[in-house]
Design goal:
By secondary structure, this protein is α/β, with parallel strands linked by helices. It has a single domain, classed as Rossmann fold (3-Layer(aba) Sandwich), CATH 3.40.50.300. The chain is built from 13 helices and 7 strands. Strands 3-2-4-1-5-6-7 form a 7-stranded parallel sheet, sandwiched between helices. The protein is globular, with a radius of gyration of 20 Å. The chain starts with a strand and ends in a 10-residue tail after the last helix. The structure holds guanosine-5'-triphosphate (GTP) and magnesium ion (MG). This is Xpa-binding protein 1-related.
Amino acid sequence: MRYAQLVVGPAGSGKSTYCSALVQHAVDTNRTIEVVNLDPAAEYFNYQPVVDIRELIHVNDTMEDEELHFGPNGGLIYCVEYLLENADWLHDRLGEQEDDYLVFDCPGQIELYTHLPTVRKLVNLLQSWNFNICTVFLVDVQFMTEGSKFLSGTMAALSVMVNLELPHINLLSKMDLLSKSAKKQLDRFLEPDCHAILGDIELNSSRFNEKHRKLTEAIGRMIEDYSLVRFTPLNLKDHENLGDVLITIDNVLQYGEDLDVRTKDFEGEDAEDND
Ligand SMILES: Nc1nc2c(ncn2[C@@H]2O[C@H](COP(=O)(O)OP(=O)(O)OP(=O)(O)O)[C@@H](O)[C@H]2O)c(=O)[nH]1
Ligand SMILES: [Mg+2]
């Protein structure tokens, strides 16, 4: 079995930063986590990817090509489809190492995850190559501290869950940027309590909100009643927090469940790693 986090979320939500923080955390805790860059438009990131889609195709190739002539968004989707058509390339690059733990740093184009079939197809492929995968959906917490925004972030998370059909974790990124009062407000939403959300929407009432109050209420209640969507705060400035988040994700991936058994096999050789 191999393990993979599919790191997705809106543009600029902190996906690449999260991936490099994970790599660093892994180094600090004596394990190996490696990153696959799936963003064909990436210009800078702070890690050394084991596989990089840009070696296969770069978004500029699709924009400069006389026949394709894509804009940046269509070009990006084309690149991911091109990757699927060249599955052998990806298969070769990923190798077949048992127990690999990879994070896939995905592009920030939300429609890839909310309704296009492309990423779901990629997931099928990875599963057929023995990967246990979960979705890690990042949302910038600064866009989640008002009731109406919290609801729309929740709906976005829900569409990704429904479209990708994978075990799913939602992370609120950039917690370090939140003020004390915003943190308090957020705590009320995290319950999740549709009354807190609705109360806030009423306070910040717009004509749309007044008109659609019942709809908002119904959505809020559905999320609450079925515990459909949960969010976990992610604070990269807090080592313990990242460690806890990783434990949660490892559990979802069933990573490490047979580790105790295996360390026994190697006893004597590598005894200090037992924990
Ligand atoms: N303060 C703070 N800034 C962050 C954090 N995570 C990301 N950022 C900043 O947010 C910006 C976007 O971060 P990225 O990691 O590039 O986001 P991304 O989701 O990979 O972006 P795209 O790939 O363009 O979709 C950068 O300027 C980061 O430095 C965080 O936890 N705290
Ligand atoms: Mg990125």
